[in-house]
Amino acid sequence: MRNMRKTLVLYAVIRIGAITCPYHDVILQSSSRLGSTANYRQRRAADGRSVAAQPSASRALASSARVVTTEELDGKYSVLTDQVDSMKVHEVLEMASIYLKEEDPSYRLNDNHDPKKRVGTWHFNRLIFDLGERGSTICGYLAQDLLEFMVTKVVESRGATERTIVPKPNTLTINGVLKAWSKTLMDEPGGPARRCESVLAKLALWQADGVLFNVSADTVSYNTVINCWKESVATVPGAAKRATDILALMEDKSTDILPDVVSHTSCISCWAEEAKRDPAAAEVAQDLLTRMYERSKEDRKAPVPTTRTLNAVLLANANTIATGRGKKALELLQMMERMDIVPDTYTFNIVMKSLANCGDAGASKKAKQFLSRMEQSSSGLHPDLLSYNTALDAFAKEGKSKSAARLLEEMVNKSIQPDSHSYTTVLTAYANARSEEKVWALKEAQDLFENIEISFASGQSDFRANTQVFNAYMNVWSKSGDRKALTRVTQLLSFMEELGFEEGGDPTVRPNDRTYCIVLNTLASNSKNPRTVDTSLQILEKMRSYNELGFQTRPTVRAFSITLLILARARKLKNKARKAQDLLQRMTREGIRPNVICFNAVLNACAFTGNEDEKEEAFTIACFAFDQLRGDPDLAPSHISYGTFLKACRKLMPAGDVRDRLVKGLFRRCCSQGLVSHFVLKEMTAMNVDYQSLLEGVSGYGNLPPTWSSNVENEVTYKNTRV
Q1: What angle, 0 to 180 degrees and rounded to 10, lies between the N-to-C axes of helices 385-397 and 401-413?
Q2: 515 and 471 in contact (C-beta within 8 Å)?
């Protein structure tokens, strides 16, 4: 009775909207028709063909019904036909197995099953669980149909004079259907979780009607729903909150379905994923852990936190982008020890991840200490590949390329094969080396890349450089400042295109959009040469051409922004402003939204128009671009935008009252938006504009009001800057 009460409570929660379920009206409609199977009508596919006549249509039905509407659920079955209500039980079982066999040709229902023998609950449960083991577009729909058929047979048996074996659903049946929904491939965000909720809501109604009076959901049932929401956190806002509501429902003292350690750990894992978007999620995860621990102290039957539970809390902390997370991870580790919970390798890996991401000084040193602690542990802890990669990340983010290189060598000496992430991280550290280490870093990167290729060719290693490693190596050259950088990067690109794009080529070394952006960045270092503009435009065209062939090389916003920057920097280029405007318009035509950097590059191209005959047109284009940026609902000018437009005014407009009035108006707007930076002040000073009157009551050359630079990013605050 109490189990039924819990299911009814869940249905009530769904019904009143605390957990939004779009199917409650449908559930009520279908419940009212349970006693009369003749009233069920199935809405088939758009062409009206019977699924029984066309078995393959089940896939099309499942894939087309991603979002199940009231109209689509008005019929009882989604895959099976209404004809099954008049068929024998074993025939329905065989029909359902045929649908599953379409998805998995190797599937067999039961080699020992004799269709002539009586079929009961066990046989249906086996097929339903087989559906749950296979992720496909049909498994949840077909499992739900089998449950509906079983309930129909229970309804038909009520009042029957002859005693027959009826495949009556039990708790295992419900859990099998829930598992099948959890494995169903759907485009609808949160679709499996919502359908699991609808199954429990229907169960509540069947219990209330006395159809399945003694069939109740159990802890596994609710855990399945929580896990479905955990899988939906990235795509469904509020999914973690829904999972927490279900956990709270399980904890309610009026019911006797107690949450277990899986319930708590899965719910905390929801918040660990949510922490990537919500900084407050980590605190919620820790609160759930504290609540679980305190309950375990008060009630011996309550579950006790395990290593996995603490790892989920640590992961929530590591996924949070905020300062101080490294220190917080160490505090959580101490809490773990106070709870007498033994850490494992993954625990230390997450702590090192928190240290690598926190940005605190000395974090990489602490990460290396944890690595050494694992190596020296007598409790069976051993660092794995993830451990070393996390420590490498910590060194790379602090620019310690030499330390990263030593750790990579240590991995090899300890017979831990580095992977793509390992090599990419070290190469990235070389690319970001300090100016005085650039020559050394380039040489080390060359030796490392050659060693990767030689080790693979000689059979000493199974790892071969892939696209990510090639990109990282090219980036080292691009940032090296070496005079051969452009030549070498171009050679590497040609090599990758030859290996990856030719028929029968290797997809693991195929260039992607990042590859071409690295080449464009290298060109930008030589952008004063007008010929680089043509080369960059050719690269954009090459990216588009390969993309039309099905490769992932579609020109990105970054690719266009770099090309616009190259165009703006080119000297003695005719019609520079017009070409920049055309490129900006091309982005829009190709469905690529320009960002602030793109608009700033167009403004820069206009500002550096040197030909007197083109200045008027360039100023018109600059005004149009700046107004377009200001009018975009998703974008806003930055201090670079204002400074560059002021530069365009200074270079393209003749000195006089008209320019002074325009510049003063721009400056007032810039002040009101808190975007007065050093760049803006420099341009104002260069025009000799008398803007002392704009200082809002500050006499003489007093300090600038702090609000004038409150929204300036990546610049110092000019509180003490003299005007």
Answers
A1: 170
A2: yes
Q: How many CB atoms lie within 10 A of CB 11?
A: 24
Q: What is the pTM of this model?
A: 0.75
CA dihedral (618, 623, 628, 630) positive or negative: positive
CA–CA separation, 560 and 198 (whole Å): 47
How far CA 349 is from CA of 208, 266, 319, 329, 419, in Å, comes to 49, 20, 13, 11, 17
User: Do 567 and 580 touch, CB atoms closer than 8 A?
Assistant: yes
Q: Which two tokens stand for residue 681?
A: 């002040």
Q: Residue 411 CB: number of other CB atoms within 10 A?
A: 19
Q: Which two tokens stand for residue 336?
A: 């773990």
* pLDDT single digits (tens) 266-308: 999 999 999 999 989 999 999 999 999 999 998 888 899 999 9
Residue pointed to by tokens 């290693």: 461
571 torsion bin: left (phi>0), alpha (psi -120 to 50), beta (else): beta
Asked if 222 and 242 count as a contact pair (C-beta separation under 8 A), the reply is: no
Residue holding tokens 């970054």?
Answer: 558
Please state, in angstroms and rounded to a whole number, the distance separating the CA atoms of residues 406 and 391. Answer: 12
Decide: helix, strand or coil at residue 594.
coil
The answer to whether the CB of 580 falls within 8 A of the CB of 601 is yes
Structure tokens at 642: 């204002």
The tens digit of pLDDT for each residue in 368-407 reads 888 888 888 777 788 899 999 999 999 998 888 899 999 9
Residues 516 and 553: beta-carbon distance below 8 Å: yes
pLDDT tens string 437-456: 899 999 999 999 999 999 99
Q: At what angle do helices 261-274 and 307-318 cross, to 10 degrees?
A: 10
Q: In 359-419, which residue ranges form alpha helices assigned H by DSSP?
A: 363-375, 385-397, 401-413
Q: What is the DSSP letter of 104?
A: -
Residue partners of 649: CB distance under 8 A and separation at least 6: 619, 659, 662, 663, 666, 687
**Separation between Cα atoms, residue 146 and residue 513, nearest integer Å:** 47
Residue pLDDT, tens place only, 464-484: 999 999 999 999 999 999 999
Which residue's structure tokens are 């650039």?
438
The full 3-state SS of 241-265, as one line of letters, equals HHHHHHHHHHHCCCCCCCCCHHHHH
C-alpha span between 192 and 61 (Å, rounded): 16
User: Within 10 A of 65 (CB to CB), how many other CB atoms are there?
Assistant: 19
Q: What is the largest CA-CA distance in the chain?
A: 105
Question: How far is the first Cα of the chain from the last one, in angstroms, to the nearest whole number?
Answer: 79
Residue 697 backbone class (left: φ over 0; alpha: ψ -120 to 50; beta: rest):
left
| CB-based contacts of 294-303 (< 8 A; 24+ apart in sequence) | 295/251, 301/258, 302/258, 303/258, 303/259, 303/260, 303/261, 303/263, 303/264
